[in-house]
Amino acid sequence: MKFNINVTEQEYIKFNIFFNFHSSVGKRALLFGRLTLPAVAALAVFILCVAGSDRSFILTEAIVLLIVSIIWIVGYPGIFKRQLTKNFQRMKKDGKLPYHEKETIEFLDSEVAAVSEDEEMHKKYADIEKVWVTGEFIMITIDSMRAFILPVRCLDNRKEELLDFLKTKVEDRIEYVDWKF
Description:
The chain is an alpha+beta fold. It has four helices and eight strands, in the order E-H-H-H-E-E-E-E-E-E-H-E. The chain has a four-stranded antiparallel β-sheet with strand order 1-2-3-4, with no helix packed on it. A four-stranded mixed β-sheet has the order 7-6-5-8, sandwiched between helices.
């Protein structure tokens, strides 16, 4: 099966957000970002206690820092998404797109072959870490830095045929995700 893939900027940003919220590397980064401010706040309260500050001052600071920490933990995913988008815009401005806009991907019996304007890549099915399937995409990750992004609109109504084929090659690594971008 051969597909001509054309990934838009918006689709790449959606993929990047999805990957960072679902991959183990992205989840760790998100967890670290969420817990950094609360850890600093707890350290600040501890230092105030050790320094012998006034109890009412410590209590007031603890309450304020607790509220700020809760807001941070809840709001951090939105901040994380905006940062991913800003990073992409910065790379684009520098003329370094982190993906291939146009690519031909062919699913052969022994490997996946991807050909773009400036690169040709062949990957064995054993090298595929995960296949994520959403309503908009099939995302095939090779590692934390490489993935094939297949927008459903580029599959010429052959999504189920491709998934049936992939099930014969990497069935234990396919995950269907209900993800709203």
